User: What shape does this take?
Amino acid sequence: MTLEKYPYVIIIIPAHNEEASIATVIKKIQDNYVVQNKNYWVEIIVVDDGSSDNTAKVAKESGVSRIISHIKNRGLGAATRIGLQRAYEMGADVAVKIDADFQHDPDDIDKLIQPILEDKADCVFGSRFNGGLKYTMPFYRSMGNRFFSYLVSKLTGLKVTDAQTGLMAFSKRYLKDFEMISDYNETQQLIMDANSKHMRIMEIPVVFYKRKSGKSFISWRYPIKVMPTIIRFFYYANPLKIFLPLGVLLIAAGVTLGIKIMLAGEGFFGDATISILVIGGIQILLFGMLADIIGTKR
Ligand SMILES: Nc1nc2c(ncn2[C@@H]2O[C@H](COP(=O)(O)OP(=O)(O)O)[C@@H](O)[C@H]2O)c(=O)[nH]1
Ligand SMILES: [Mg+2]
Assistant: This one.
């Protein structure tokens, strides 16, 4: 039987200075899915994102032939985007994204891709907080994870328990249309983008180990970096939720002022501020409607 008869699964490993761990991740994927071949046709893509160590060399020596190299560090979001684009161009049936630091267990990939192969989901995210966490996460990290998962749940209407997971799988249907606007990180924007495109989104419990080498990219700047992206995705998907109240508020303020001035004995438009408020409000409403048309026609 030729490999082409199997579902084509492309596993993307974005990496930045992970020479100490990436070989272990690659080897486990090869042992599990390439050597034993669990009925998939598996290929690995490593996106070496401007590493200053030997990440690319180690990946190559581990047998990965597809290594995308960024000359300078562009960020996990950018690396994930290029990996997913390449997977689509290569004709993947399923694309999986896994971290290079061996905090995930490649064993979980199997579970993640099943719902996609069975056509039950387009996006499957591995949640670390449904029993799979294998160490005590620092308090501030744990609180941050809870907060952003809550926020993404509220904004999408989905029940998301882990909006920062690094292990996920996507169907060809989503790969064709996905959009990521931020280079910094990946998961929140992928959940929000997929939801706005009416993809079938699922969470599955996965294990998550403590990082044994290297350094996390997450710092105190994290909320400042991710909030604008989350807000932008929200109004991309729901422009009227922002523009409508804003427009109505301005018009209401203009009308209230007009009535006040009229009661004081002058004409309704006795003050230029009223016209500015009312016209500005109407314009904002029209912008909202335009954004809504553009958004829903995509
Ligand atoms: N491509 C790319 N990958 C990165 C960058 N920073 C981190 N990573 C990778 O993204 C994955 C997750 O990053 P990590 O710092 O461990 O995040 P954490 O697990 O949430 O602490 C790891 O595989 C990193 O090598 C980056 O700037 N570019
Ligand atoms: Mg990590």
Q: What stands out?
A: The longest strand covers residues 41-49. The radius of gyration is 24 Å.
